[in-house]
Amino acid sequence: MNRFRKKFVSLCFYLILPLVLVEIWVNFYLFEHASYTNSRSLDQTIKALNRDRKNHEIFFFGDSEVHWGVNPVVFDNQLKTSGMDVRSFNFGIDGFSGAINYELLKKLETRMFKGMKVALIGVQLIEYHNVYPSEAQVRQDQGQNDLKRPVFLSPFGIDHALTGFSEVQTSYLDLSPLKSIRYRKAIKSFLMKDMHVIQAGYFTQQPDGFSPHLSIRANPANYALDVKRKKEERAQNPGSFTPLDPERWERDLQDNEYFDQMARFFLDRDVYPVFFALPTNPWYIDFKNRRQTYAVNSRKLSDWAEQRGLSFIDLGILDAFSAEDDFADFRHLSHSGAARFSRMLAEQVAELSYVQKVCRSDHRPLIRAIKHWNSQFPPVKKLSAEQLYTKFKATHDIAEMSTSDASLEIAAGGNDPWMVLGLEGIAEGKSLVGRIEIETEKDTTFSISWVTDQVQDFNSEMTSQEILTVGKNVIYVLIKEDHLIKQLRIDPGQQPGKYKICSLSYKMF
């Protein structure tokens, strides 16, 4: 018995204890010396997220044009001048297009993005977008790409089930609960000092994910080489340097295609998605003969966003930027161009009332209303100006109502104007999601109340309020009841003056 005990103690001391110590070291120290993602820039991004204990309300997603082009420090400082005190983080990844970014996001735990309320998604207007129907299609298109394949096969890729995107067959060892086995290739690289990583650039990457780059003026040889390579590519494959097929690009805007799926991904997680046009070097847009393509796709995406209660920002083709100082190469912004673009982008974001509401208050009701509006429920029903005039009953402090330019104009004579819309004959249901466009001459508060066939008096518990600013405002409201909704009470504002209901539409379900 004593002999057996001694053997067991020896086994623990000489075999099990070293394995435990190795496992502990791998858990806490390996990736201080080895690459977690096989990409130096992505390593720094992941480490920055893990180390920062504070929340970021806004995250940027996209490819290298996001990674090099959006400076969160400049962006946040500009937002502060508009009264928005938020923190942002750049999660752009070099070489990861919109389609592969979407596939990656579906694999990541959203808790990685602590505090996220708004997602700013970079959109390439001069390239196609698509949704991959299967991992096999990803493997066919992306599996051997020099930028993506190392990430797919890295410890990061193993942890987040990205190895299926590569043509390399997954080993059962990759499923081991022991990290010393799962990360065996990273351990080997560390022991052999064999660090195959992708270089990030010429400046140190910032702790908020942004990667600043030298300008063309500071590095002309690199730009000359880029131009030479692009001319060689065009000579070998001239079809890739022509305007896009408008019908194919438009398919991405149809129901349940790329943009719908990307938007729904964030809405399902109570995050408001904002799409923005990427700041591509005008030289490259013209080199690919896609200036007109850019303009057409921008208009189409803007219409798509408006129909869905979402936001799209296009700062236009950056012809006013300095060709030598504001761009780093044939495509990307330099550090100075990124600062300039980030300020401009922040100015546009600050004007989005939805972003302000989401960042300043409990954003979930608004986001869920927008999500329901975009869901596959019964078709949208829209009341014409004549129907609004006929159906609304001016009840209090309303001096006059009239129709003009397909809108209902309201002249309020006091501080408490309100009117009632009966739903009998035009709608019937226990839940309603509505969209209202309203113009006001002053900053004020809009409210909508409702009654059911069981609760017939308007009350504060069955009321939703929204802050209105001067000009046109778009409001979404989601009402869920256990009984049939019978009437809506609209309080356009809390001040005398003129109001205009430009549009009132809804879905009952």
Global shape: globular
Rg is 28 Å
Number of structural domains: 3
Strand tally, please?
16
Q: Mean pLDDT across all residues, rounded?
A: 86
How many separate helices? 19
- Low-confidence stretches at least 5 residues in length (pLDDT < 50)? 196-201
Between the first and last Cα atoms, what is the distance in angstroms? Answer: 74 Å
Task: Tell me what the structure shows.
By secondary structure, the chain is α+β, with helices and mostly antiparallel strands. The chain folds into three domains: 1-25; 33-365, SGNH hydrolase (Rossmann fold, 3-Layer(aba) Sandwich); 381-508, Jelly Rolls (Sandwich). It has helices at residues 2-28, 40-51, 64-69, 72-80, 98-107, 135-142, 148-152, 155-159, 179-182, 184-191, 220-236, 246-251, 258-267, 282-287, 291-307, 335-350, 353-360, 364-374, 385-391, and strands at residues 58-61, 88-90, 118-123, 272-277, 311-313, 381-383, 392-396, 398-404, 407-412, 418-422, 431-440, 444-452, 463-468, 471-480, 485-491, 497-508. The strands form three sheets. Strands 6, 8, 9, 11, 14 and 16 form a six-stranded antiparallel β-sheet that branches. A hairpin with a 2-residue loop joins strand 8 and strand 9. The protein is globular. Residues 196-201 have low confidence and may be disordered.
